[in-house]
Specification:
By secondary structure, the protein is of the alpha+beta class. It is built from 7 helices and 28 strands. α5 packs antiparallel against α6. The protein is elongated, with a radius of gyration of 45 Å.
């Protein structure tokens, strides 16, 4: 009896909370739930029929299929709408205009990668430095700037020694040459008559030749304003090491000129990767000024050497490559380096342009049909600077957005296009 009483109360709550009077053909108006107001003392309700309805075994959950007694009375009419709630819709015309491209994922070989940092340096023999041939004060010849193109022998600056205590070195060299020449010619006439010894004549000849060489070297680039310093090779001015009006001494570096035809890439590798260095054959690197990834394989690059020990004040081992400079790599710049090691087979990888990041988690977008896309979380593996190994999240045969992923992300965030309910 108490059981039927409680069931009647639950039935009333269910009826009061549900606005749908007819769920799957079940008519609550035909039930007389007045049983809850009866005096049930002394009644045995097992099999007791109130108004033609037997409440024993009456299952409101079964008969109320299609409506929820927990407050969800909307039925299942939203089920179809929710089936594609995670789908992103971008019409084909808009996708084409945004440059969206899709590729089918296929297993392919992938190179093991060691990511580190490094520096681009001028190759040996491709760089030369103009030095001071005399002591004096520097004066630039015209406008000399870093990066300007120069030919071999192009005047760069002048060194003047007019007001220096030691005097003009060219004038001193000329005087020494003329004196030694006269002495040599005088002794040359006397040695035939044995008036001077052969030893003295040989010494005079040596002094004359030394003076001549010195004077001709200085006089070659001498002008009325001083000693001209020219570019030692054709190329580009890499660095200017002095300023206008500086005093310089003989042999002091003045201007560095580079041909930039071949460059070195020096990577600094952590000691923990030392066992893998013998497997390294090539590298990619990315510059900070244009974010472009360069492949040494496409630049006629080759591995020169890798260090057998780390530096005195470093825990890194140097690895050096040489490659052709195509004109847009700056010597001296610091770069990110991707050392390419042994090859892995049957690896699923995607270009970096396919990835988007949200709070440290990476996603790609799968194409479901011509207009439908789905956001998919992925786990990343090795990164060679252009492509990334995908460990989980995709499988062979998936259609993945490789270009224009950001446009798909914007379409998802804007919710400008409602979800559709067509079948897949």
């Amino acid at each position: 009896m108490k059981k039927i009483f409680l069931m009647g109360i639950l039935g009333l709550f269910a009826l009061g909370s549900c606005t749908n009077k007819n769920a799957q053909g079940h008519d609550h108006e035909g039930h007389d739930h007045s049983i809850v107001t009866h005096n049930h003392d002394g009644h045995d309700h097992d099999g007791h029929d109130h108004d033609g309805h037997n409440h024993k075994g009456h299952n409101h959950e079964a008969e109320g299929a299609g409506h929820s007694h927990e407050g969800e009375c909307n039925g299942d009419h939203n089920e179809a709408a929710n089936a594609h709630s995670d789908e992103i819709i971008l019409p084909k015309a808009k996708a084409d205009a945004a440059g969206v491209k899709v590729s089918i994922v296929e297993p392919a070989p992938f190179r093991q990668v060691i990511k580190t940092s490094g520096q681009v340096l001028a190759a040996q023999g491709d760089e030369s430095v103009a030095v001071a041939t005399v002591a004096g004060v520097v004066s630039f010849r015209g406008k000399v700037t870093e990066g300007m193109s120069v030919g071999s022998g192009t005047p760069l600056l002048t060194i003047s020694s007019h007001n220096i205590t030691d005097g003009d070195p060219v004038q001193r060299a000329r005087i020494a040459y003329e004196v030694s020449k006269k002495e040599y010619e005088r002794m040359k006439a006397l040695v035939a008559n044995k008036i001077v010894s052969d030893k003295d004549f040989a010494q005079a000849e040596q002094n004359y030749e030394n003076a001549r060489i010195s004077y001709e070297a200085l006089a070659k680039n001498h002008s009325a304003i001083g000693q001209n310093i020219t570019a030692p090779i054709a190329g580009y001015v890499k660095s200017i090491l002095v300023k206008e009006g500086d005093y310089v001494t003989i042999g002091q570096p003045l201007v560095s000129v580079t041909q930039n035809r071949r460059l070195f890439l020096r990577a600094e590798v952590s000691e923990k990767y030392y066992p893998y260095l013998h497997t390294i054959s090539s590298a990619n690197f990315q510059t900070p000024y244009n974010n472009k990834v360069y492949e040494l394989g496409a630049l006629n690059g080759r591995l020169l050497s890798f260090g057998k020990t780390s530096g005195d004040n470093s825990f890194y081992v140097p690895v050096t490559f040489e490659f052709d400079n195509k004109g847009d790599v700056i010597s001296g710049s610091f770069v990110e380096v991707y050392l390419l090691s042994s090859q892995l087979d049957n690896v699923l990888s995607l270009p970096r342009t396919a990835l988007t990041e949200e709070q440290g988690v990476f996603f790609v977008y799968l194409q479901l049909d011509e207009e439908g896309y789905k956001k998919q979380e992925v786990t990343l593996g090795a990164d060679n600077g252009k492509s990334v190994q995908i460990l989980t999240g995709i499988k062979a045969g998936d259609r993945v957005v490789t270009e224009g992923a950001y446009q798909i992300r914007l379409a998802s965030a804007s919710n400008a296009i409602p979800a559709h309910s067509h079948e897949h």
